[in-house]
Amino acid sequence: MLPFDPERFARLARAQQVDVVLASTRYSVRYLTGGYYLPFFSRASRFGGGRYLSFVAVPSTRLDSAFYVGRQDRALDEQDYIAAFGPFWIADRRWVPRGPNMSSDAAAAAARALRDHGFAGATIAIESSFLPVDAYEALRRELPEASFVNGTSLLGELRAIKQPHELARLREVHRLTAEVVRAVFMQSRAEETTRQIAARVERHVGERGAAFLYSLINVGPGLLRAPSSQAWGRGCPMHLDVGAELDEYIADIARMGSVGPPPPAASALFEVCRAAQERARTSVGPGVSCGELWRVGSEAVRVGPGAEYGRFLAHGLGMVSHEPPEVTPESTRALEAGMVVSIETEVRHPDVGHVKIEDSVVVTATGCEGLGDVDRGWCVAAAGG
């Protein structure tokens, strides 16, 4: 069973006049294979003076000509890892040995496979923003008749509609990230620095089996959103904006908290954000334009106290942050069931601090469903620590 929608893939490729997609980023390899990537390089691809590089090639109309290029040697044989992974829909597998030029060697092997399948003069979509120069040069050298185009947008559009197994991963990573944020609020003390609190976030994310991406942290008043030597302090608003990853799928969640009750001004700004968040959610549904979502959210966050400091932002989310759909004032694109959108409402008030809520929703047939809707209210930690 293919891990992506082949009809959608064919339509996108046809619209961009692409014959073959040649993917090489870790997340695209995992997406197109259904979850496989060589575990040894799952967090970092560098090796000696070079880097590991694998390729997945998927023709737009001849899926039986898809192929995979990976590594094979006595120390690390990918065939064994693929067998352990389970069903692998790509039958044609090519191998390159360990060496100082693994990236260019892999690209040369991919070029030879493309020629074998009759694509020597094809239009080939590559992930040009992420492809090493030596690999690109090998492709150009081996396939002088071919045309190479940037396939990043094509792959982004393919991922825009999530499959059920993808939504399950996104629900899980958002839930655990929201639970981490709440736990860190409750466990942290007024005398602890934001650097110590951010380190606690990272530990908790790892303990739950996910990969830590970032922890943007702010204590008001002031707008710095970086771990520092600043102490949280009693009665000071703090926001945690945390990113985590589980099997390539990303969560992006922001919550507010304080040691003891929050200052009245911060509480009032939080209510502005919460009301705007709910208003934006009610506007989400299939057929609604991204421009309309932007308008509704922007108008909602710019009312009440601190209106001039309010801001609304929404963006697609999945394996990549800020992937399609793009939510801008000019966008006429309609939301579709299966899309996932991160919704952010914030007030950056110079006298209060950075008050923010961020959640993600999946568009459903009748509206939307929240991902990670855990403890979305203001978290009040005990004054005793």
Give a verbal description of the structure.
By secondary structure, this protein is α+β, with helices and mostly antiparallel strands. The strands form four sheets. The protein has a six-stranded mixed sheet with strand order 6-5-4-1-7-8, with helices on both faces. Strands 13-12-14-15-16 form a five-stranded antiparallel sheet. It has a four-stranded mixed sheet with strand order 9-10-11-17, with helices on one face. Strand 10 and strand 11 form a beta hairpin. The longest helix is centred in the middle third of the chain and has 24 residues. The radius of gyration is 23 Å and the shape is globular.
Strand content: 25-35%
Order of helices and strands: HEHEEEEHEHEHEHHHEEEHHEEEEEE
The CATH topology of the largest domain comes to: Creatine Amidinohydrolase
Strand element count: 17
Shape: globular
Class by alpha and beta content: alpha+beta
Low-confidence regions: none
* Level-1 CATH class name of the largest domain: Alpha Beta
Distance N to C terminus: 52 Å
Q: Please, what is the average pLDDT?
A: 95
| Biggest sheet statistics | 6 strands, mixed
Number of domains: 2
The CATH architecture of the largest domain can be named as Alpha-Beta Complex
Q: Percent range for helical residues?
A: 25-40%
- The main sheet orders its strands as 6-5-4-1-7-8
Total of helices: 10
